[in-house]
Amino acid sequence: MNYFITLILLLMSFSTFSANKKNKIKEYKFTEEQLKKEVSKRLLAKISEIKNKGSVNFSNELMEKEQKLNLKEVALKTEYKKFESSKLDFIRKISVFKEKENKLIGCLDKIDQKRNERISHMVNTVAAMKPVNAANLLSVQESELSVQILGQLPATKVSKIFNLMKKEISARLQKQYLNMQK
Description:
Order of helices and strands: HHHHHH
Largest sheet: none
Strand content: under 5%
Radius of gyration: 52 Å
Helix content: over 70%
Structural class: mainly alpha
Distance between the termini: 102 Å
């Protein structure tokens, strides 16, 4: 340890004296005890100098980092506010979309209901007709509509109507009628 302290003292002395070319190397004559005291004294001075510089630098670094963190925190807060605003806007748009969707579904339901009412009316009308007239009427209708009407008529009436239709039309409607029944 004594050699280490001596080495540090010599290095510090050498660096001090070599930096200044005007100074010549001075020879000091110390006793071992005086040398230890002088080395300790200079070492403590150098350590306190380094400590003070280090703590100042460390404090400055901490302050800079704190400022950067504060700036980032402010930026995050503004981003969070933007996010919350966008979130509320998105929620409003979803509610408007759901209202429109409900209106559209309501309109489609009304259209389906009216169509079903018209088909029910046609079923009642065809049911009241003679099978010959019903066969003539259903032969010229769209096949999908004819099959829907036939699907709601009694089976005996349907068989009489199919028998009175032309064979091609009857075969096509019977095929669709059977597929509808599944």
